[in-house]
Design brief:
This protein has 464 residues and is of the alpha/beta class. It is built from 14 helices and 15 strands. The strands form three sheets. Strands 8-7-9-10-11-14-15 form a seven-stranded mixed beta sheet, sandwiched between helices. The longest helix is centred in the N-terminal third of the chain and has 20 residues.
């Protein structure tokens, strides 16, 4: 049955394709790191399916210690909570399959100094070889400098600033990776959507001057918007502690802009957006992945759009299995932070499994060459430890977040598997399939191209 379904899909896809082509966030470090021991090593592996419905990499036969560095308190603690939940889900699945994993939890509070303190502690005192985190770029950047110098493998699920994986001199931090797209791409995606899809000609941008993520995304958006022919008459900064944005919003109102780009996290966006509505500003609001939170004020940002790393309505089984199992386990649907954290944990486990030794120098090389099909998309790292991935554009309307479209980065490389899909296992019995196409008449070229494509697929199957 599976083989028949696959063949049927090939036929339909081929025909449809041919038709389409014919149409015109510093307490003492001890207070932020809480070790948790893994279950006994002799626990019997189980065959229970994982959250995403994919197999756990084979256990390497030795114990590992991993630090989870997330904002467990502070302004964006919901990000830390969902990230921690997802990593623990992935690790629980691995333990059930025979892995011995000890974790150390550190609270970065999405703050650079807090992150430095906890990063130094888990490496120098807890002696971890692997770090998953941080969430915020402002926390991941200082941790990445510490980890890379100490030869500790770090993978950030969600930090999008380029400096997470690249040094100031342009060289890459060879022990540091990430599971998400970068801000230059995210900024360009939002600017392009504003101009090409929303018809915007003028934009206003308000940003936190002290936050690497927010400031970087604002700058990338402005540059892309102007490169595409738009104007940015209002490009204004504020600080993390600001609560009254009336002066900045007066400038926005006077400029009569079409879109208002707010590249901050949900907590600050809620404040600015509400004040903008009260001031009568009707510009369409836009934002980045920092908007993704159950605490986002949907009424304040109604009508707005934001980019994100995945969509829970993505029909791929790996996504739907993850959403269902995470929701059942934690009582809430997973945000993009959870999806990326789950992927980051699984990528780390796969790299350790493939390396076969508890040696960060070997593991980072294995990770560099990894190929992983994740909840938030495929991961194949470039030379800087960055994956090139798609972005999901979402629209907020009537108190709901609706998926609009996926956008891929220009020139994104395809993996070998994408260029030549593997053939499904033979079922062990012969099948007979009819190919019904227009082989004559006005659209016979459609039939010819469809027949050629199906025969190519069948020839590949026969060879297997």
């Amino acid at each position: 049955m599976k083989a028949m379904k696959i063949l049927g899909l090939l036929v339909v896809t081929s025909l449809l394709f041919s038709i389409a082509t014919g149409c015109t966030p510093t307490p003492p470090a001890e207070a932020t790191a809480v070790p948790t021991k893994a279950p006994a090593a002799e626990a019997t592996p189980t065959e229970a399916p994982t959250a995403a419905g994919v197999e756990v990499p084979p256990a390497p036969g030795f114990p590992i210690k991993v630090a989870m560095l997330f904002p467990m308190s502070g302004d964006v603690k919901t990000y830390g909570e969902s990230s921690k939940n997802a990593v623990e889900m992935a690790f629980d699945e691995a333990r059930a399959a025979g892995w011995e994993i000890e974790t150390v939890l550190g609270d970065t509070k999405c703050d650079a100094q807090e992150a430095s303190n906890v990063g130094n502690k888990v490496i120098s005192q807890d002696k971890v070889h692997y770090i998953i985190g941080a969430v915020c770029s402002s926390a991941s950047i200082p941790i990445s400098e510490i980890a890379n110098a100490a030869h500790v493998v770090q993978i950030s699920p969600t930090s999008t600033n380029p400096q997470v994986t690249i040094n100031e001199d342009g060289s890459n931090k060879e022990y540091v990776f990430r599971a998400c797209f970068l801000d230059p791409f995210q900024g360009k995606v939002n600017a392009s959507f504003a101009i090409n899809e929303l018809g915007a000609k003028k934009a206003a941008v308000l940003y936190d001057v002290g936050n690497d993520y927010v400031k970087g995304l604002a700058e990338y958006y402005k540059a892309a918007f102007e490169d595409l022919g738009g104007e940015v008459p209002v490009f204004e900064a504020y600080t993390k502690d600001d609560t009254d944005f009336s002066a900045l919003l007066t400038k926005v109102a006077e400029a009569n802009v079409d879109v208002l780009f707010l590249p901050d996290y949900y907590n600050k966006v809620n404040v600015i957006a509400k004040q903008a509505k009260e001031k009568g500003i009707t510009a369409i609001m836009q934002g980045g992945d920092g908007w993704d939170s159950p605490l986002l004020d949907l009424e304040a940002v109604d009508g707005g759009y934001f980019s994100n790393h995945y969509s829970p309505v993505d029909p791929r089984p790996i996504v739907q299995n993850f959403v269902a199992n995470y929701t059942a386990k934690y009582g809430a649907a997973p945000d993009a932070l959870a999806a990326l954290a789950y992927d980051a944990a699984r990528v780390l486990l796969q790299a350790i499994s493939e390396a076969g030794v508890d040696d960060p120098a070997v593991v980072k090389d294995a990770m560099q060459n990894i190929k992983y099909e994740g909840v938030a998309g495929k991961i194949v790292f470039n030379e800087n430890g960055d994956p090139q991935k798609t972005a999901a554009i979402n629209h907020i309307t009537n108190g709901k977040v609706e998926f609009v479209k996926f956008v891929a980065p220009a020139g994104a490389p395809t993996t070998e598997e994408e260029e030549k899909p593997s053939v499904a296992p033979a079922p062990g019995f012969p099948i007979k399939v009819a190919m019904l196409f227009p082989m004559s008449g006005d659209v016979k070229t459609y039939g010819e191209s469809s027949k050629n494509a199906v025969e190519m697929a069948f020839d590949e199957a026969r060879a297997a």
